[in-house]
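Incident log, structure service

09:12 report received: a user says their structure output differs between two submissions of the same chain.
09:20 pulled the input from the user's history:
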Amino acid sequence: MERFIQLHLLTAYPPANLNRDDLGRPKTALVGGAERLRVSSQSLKRAWRTSDVFQQAVKGHVGVRTRRIGAEVFEKLIAAGVPEAKARECARTIASVFGKLKREKKDDGTPEALQIEQLAHLSPEELALIDEWIERIANGEPLPKKEELDLLRKQKTAADIALFGRMLADAPRFNTEAACQVAHAITVHRVVVEDDFYTAVDDLNRGEEDAGAGHMGETEFGSGLFYLYICLDRQLLLDNLGGDGALARKTVDGLIRSAATVAPGGKQNSFASRARASYILCEKGDAQPRSLAVAFLKPVEAVGGGLLSNAIDALEEERQRLDAAYGDGDADAVVMNAQAGAGYLADIVTYAAEGL
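09:34 re-ran on a clean worker, output below:
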């Protein structure tokens, strides 16, 4: 079985602010001396794993990432008729299995006292065990000490954890190494972040005293053609899923379809910047993976055949040069080029999942 799948996607987004920095501006990066728009891998992975596309592909095999597991347990215990003091004590004990409590020494009765300090990614198996203990406590069974609670599982069927990994600082033997690496998406061309000044009208203002706007604001945005690189270690994915080939294939399907069709949610109500990949290249093999971002070190210009056509040419030419230089390319790589009417997304999925 070939170990690695490498995906290269080109997706054009109209004006948007998909992924904001701490000032609310679209994220950027300086690449090849030119400013580019950027969408972080964290933003992309979050959008994919929570999307209907991914959820439907791996039904029942998605985890939950949260700091609030203690509050969830507390509410379920209260609903089951457990006295509040006992419910809080049990909720704190169960939550502490997954991380250090935010207020470890003092429970002041606030929801924060039931939270853990860092986000923990819980698998369906672990969530089921928690629910089992909630039922047992509700039936009068005493909860054992934290050290005796057997809640964590090294072997899991959570597709998102298998892909993107998890880290538990207080229980490192239950960590999962991510099988999928996702680069930050960048525009293939230089960009200028623009300002949008807008106003909102007060519907009940008849203009008799004040004809001005009810609200004025400003937001920043940008648009561009993004290059995204994804590398998937298929053997590690299979290992993370306990050797379940059928689930691994569903996971690959969900990853590719969501990467091709799901946009981050930032400012979508203001911009409706929904887009699908116009070009996807899928490579398979055992050679050391490599991004093709170097193809866009020199910003692509919108001349001749246009920005998308020029970007596709630059990517494919760079791939040919690297394959010739290193002699380890994938001669059977599959391409979907919507602009040219060549290839299908289903072809990409089939090639990527083949052999799992």
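09:41 both user submissions now match this output. Likely a transient worker issue. Closing.
09:42 reviewer note: Residues 65-157 form one domain. The chain has two domains: 4-57+179-353, 65-157.
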